[in-house]
Write a structure and sequence with these properties.
heterodimer, A: alpha/beta, Rossmann fold, 2 domains, six-stranded mixed β-sheet, 7 helices, 10 strands, B: mainly alpha, MetI-like fold, globular, binds adenosine-5'-triphosphate, binds magnesium ion
Chain lengths: 264, 270
């Protein structure tokens, strides 16, 4: 079975001409197999940086990330990533996009076809198999991106604001789909968002981050049965509480930008 | 209906020019040797197109129909364009991919390329004859040079502008270096590469006409130069029109190919 993600004292410093930017500082988290964790925080607080470190795109400057006794240093198909910008290959059809990861693994043609068909079914993409991404709506593209990652059958899914660019209705629809798939397949999901409501709707646990340096401000367990009702009192109490935390950081972000503007 | 109207509108000015030209010629305003009438040019073009001899016994109908001088010349020119282009582009594409993908290789080759690039292919003519003598090889060489640089430059630019997000997504799927090159970088760069191909073919077509004026004895470039020696201005113009038509045909074919290969591309109107 899959193993937890251990984020052990992770720091990330970006060297820039304007000085060092401490994007992540003293991050310690353990994410259990099958857990749905949201990273929440204002823009620039280091959510993507942390996710990219787990994905293996940008290793931490200090500390380590360990999965199954191995320190993560490079990307791998055990950690499928869904990007905000979809990142589908526009020159491949929907079917080819989903099949690509399996072709890379040199799977049998018949097996690839089987998996692709299952995923097209699972994500209601049957009629779009031979379309190119340019002909799809944003919601459809993100379904394909999810299918492409599911094809890898990786135990861990990393998602960086995957629904950020979608309209509210499509967004809710995809959130429900994602929960359905997660419950069905038992993946570990690390999901970045700056929407408080989205995080409460989805997560088992919400990690609220601070702005510069990015640290863990609150590690909040969400103990509500699903499907969650965004109109319920419990939902709204938590929303208010998290909103307060995020606003504090948002304010620091705004102050920092004002200071920068004043220097210019 | 619209199509007919558009066609009529597009044909208006050329037809007027032809009528004016014909009228001037008939009125004896230009000497027929210097500027033949369009009707004379058309007659010559037709004669140039038709087979010169009667069908021989045992010769297939098709072979006979294509035995006319014009078709033979057009075929020779086209053959040189394609062969020269394939050589030039065939060298430019891998070099461009390497230079675009690897800064070290880029730094090694770029100075040489920048020195060679401004030299027009025509300036290689003396060297081409010295190295390759007469016949097709000097033409291939000159055409290859003409096609090489546009394809090279665009391939480098195409590889460099590949969006990093595709590379990340591919690495996340576990893609190795070779697959990254063939299935991600190359297709992502095709819009640029094909733009280079189109420019390269255009250059190749200019160079083929020039190269045929020096080292071979068929092809459209040769034919119009030959016609000048006999003062056959009608044949010169007929040859030029053929060059125009062939160029148009090549560009249309390349543009069709573009549209097919880039059917996934967002920037395409069709
Ligand atoms: N390559 C880099 N070089 C320098 N600074 C960087 C780099 N990448 C990120 N940063 C800085 O690190 C901080 C964290 O960035 P990150 O992209 O992780 O934020 P985020 O929380 O994902 O924000 P958003 O919600 O806008 O995506 C930001 O202040 C950003 O300016
Ligand atoms: Mg981000």
């Amino acid at each position: 079975m899959s193993s937890p993600i251990l984020i052990d004292n992770v720091q990330k410093v970006f060297k820039t001409p304007g000085g060092d930017v401490v994007a992540l500082k003293d991050i310690n988290l353990t994410i259990q197999p099958g857990e749905f964790v949201c990273l929440l925080g204002p823009s620039g607080c280091g959510k993507s940086t942390l996710l990219n470190a787990v994905a293996g795109f940008q290793p931490p400057s200090d500390g380590q990330i360990v999965i199954a006794q191995k320190t993560i240093r490079s990307p791998g198909p055990d950690r499928g990533m869904v990007f905000q910008e979809y990142a589908l290959f526009p020159w491949m059809t929907v079917g080819q996009n989903i099949a690509f990861g399996l072709e890379v693994q040199k799977k049998e043609k018949a097996e690839i076809d089987l998996v692709v068909n299952q995923l097209l079914d699972l994500l209601h993409l049957k009629d779009f198999r031979d379309r190119f991404p340019k002909d799809l709506s944003g919601g459809m593209r993100q379904r394909v991106a999810i299918a492409r990652v599911l094809a890898l059958d990786s135990p861990i899914m990393l998602m960086d604001e995957p629904f950020g660019a979608l309209d509210a209705l499509t967004r809710r629809n995809l959130q429900d789909e994602l929960l359905r798939i997660w419950e069905k397949l038992g993946k570990t999901i690390l999901f970045v968002t700056h929407s408080i409501e989205e995080s409460i709707y989805l997560a088992d646990r919400i990690v609220v981050m601070t702005y510069r340096p990015g640290t863990v401000k609150r590690d909040q367990v969400v103990d509500m049965p699903r499907p969650r009702d965004p109109a319920s009192p419990a939902f709204n109490d938590l929303k208010r509480e998290l909103g307060r935390l995020v606003m504090e950081e948002q304010q620091r972000h705004a102050d920092a930008e004002m200071k920068l503007a004043a220097v210019d | 209906m619209h199509k007919i109207k558009d066609f009529a509108q597009g044909a208006l000015v050329p037809v007027l020019v032809l009528i004016l030209w014909e009228a001037c010629s008939r009125a004896g305003l230009f000497s027929a040797v210097v500027m033949p009438a369009p009707s004379a040019v058309a007659a010559k073009w037709w004669a140039y197109l038709l087979p010169a001899q009667a069908q021989e016994a045992g010769q297939s109908w098709l072979a006979w129909a294509f035995s006319g001088e014009l078709l033979h010349d057009a075929y020779s020119s086209l053959y040189r364009v394609i062969a020269g282009f394939l050589i030039g582009a065939g060298l430019a594409l891998p070099l461009g991919l390497l230079m675009g993908a690897n800064t070290r290789i880029y730094a090694l080759f770029n100075p040489l390329m920048q020195i060679l690039r401004p030299i027009p292919p025509i300036a290689y003519i003396p060297l081409a004859i010295l190295w390759f003598g007469l016949g097709n090889p000097p033409s291939f060489f000159l055409i290859a040079i003409g096609a090489f640089f546009p394809v090279l430059m665009n391939t480098i630019a195409g590889v460099r502008q590949v969006d990093g997000i595709y590379l990340r997504a591919a690495r996340n799927l576990g893609v190795g270096q070779w697959t990254m090159f063939t299935r991600v970088i190359l297709p992502a760069a095709t819009p640029y590469i094909l733009a280079g191909v189109r420019i390269g073919i255009g250059t190749a077509f200019i160079v083929v006409i020039v190269s045929e004026m020096i080292a071979v004895n068929d092809g459209l470039g040769f034919r119009i130069l030959e016609a000048r020696e006999f003062m056959w201005s009608d044949k010169i113009i007929a040859g030029m029109i053929t060059i125009g038509l062939l160029g148009l045909a090549i560009d249309t074919a390349v543009s069709r190919l573009n549209n097919h290969l880039l059917r996934w591309h967002r920037g395409l109107e069709h």
